[in-house]
Sequence to fold (445 residues):
Amino acid sequence: MAFWGRCIEKEQLLGENRKFLQGSSRMVSISGPSGAGKTTLVRETFFDDIENIHLFFHPTSTQKGVIEVLRAELCRISRANEVPVFETLIDGIAYVLALTRRQRIRLILDGVDCAARIEPNFLGALQELWEKNRQSTQCLLVLVTESHIALQNRALENLLLEADAEIEVHGWTANELAYVFREIHPEGGNLDLLTLYAISGGLPGVVHELGAAKSYAADDLIDYVFSDKGAGLREMPEVFLLRDLRLTSNNCHELLRGVAAGQTRWSQLQDRVSEPATPYLSRLIGKYGLLEKRYPLLHHSSKSSVRYVFKDGFFRFWYAMVDAPELTVLAAQSDWKGLKAAASVRMNSFLAETMRQWFLDRYIDQARYKMEVGAWWNHAGTATIDIVAIDRSQKIIEFAQVENTGDQTALRLAAAKFLEQHPAFAGFERRFRILTLDDMQNPIF
Fold:
């Protein structure tokens, strides 16, 4: 099942591969959030006649284990029964670079940030080794890493500065996921698509994992996630949080649970912890990259109106639907029937909130260059609008609410309050729209 056929990231990687084939050596870094499909991208891009050595590094990897894999790969490539025994991993990489003086090879170090844990000086030694050999080898060195981890590791950051190209893998937008959905589940309906978006957050790696369900129908996805078969998917964020980010603070976890529950104001989050919340929120935004601040449209510095939201929809799903105490107890008891029933009840409200993000995502994606788009709320919290889209060139302002009723009364009242605060748009043509589940895949522009 090919997920990267028409994606810009694959085109970028193919472009770097073409440069590699035309020259000598290149270093490319691929970064992105956990579950973004970085490994899948590499696998679906490099399938020609050039040899690949693909080494995986995990928090539990050992130097001996990785070296054994590397030696096995070298035996395969050289068609020899024996290759040297390396004392260190960097000795093995040096051997590969020497080999590539006469043979083209792509060396893929997947999860390279974890390599420093098994060989403390690995990253600095790799940078030095590459600088020494890059002009004489025929190697494409591909470094795959979690985007936020790179910012926390000075040695890794220095190594990535040597890269000839940086490719950042993002989750799919709503429009991109809708395209993929039509390919993988052509008979699917809007509820199926919304459920897939809610669970995966648009992350290709999670969509790929969900392929293990019977189908991409909503019931099958829920059956899979909240069953013994879905244990690996349910554990994905926890592994990343604890092993990779090393996020162990109970206060941080409690704040993330609060945001997932819809408590997005600072005052609401402060009530969840006994210590000042601001330092922890700053860490979750800056150090860990799990949250971001969101402001009402056209109020980008309004401290009193700031909302805290997840940057990653999959983590939002995990904290709201997997990490919930009553659900974790049922999973620990292997009560899969009870777990699915409890999750299905919670899922209804979760899907309603997710649908708001879906349509906002579609507006942002479609109108990125010609409109200002975002949600809006006033300081008092008495008026909210799910989507305000401004087209200054055409002098059009559109107000949209995502709900299951066609009544525009509340929307028009909120729009009047918006225009009171922004009289510059008083002369713009006003459009009002109620968006429902039926509109998820419809052309709305």
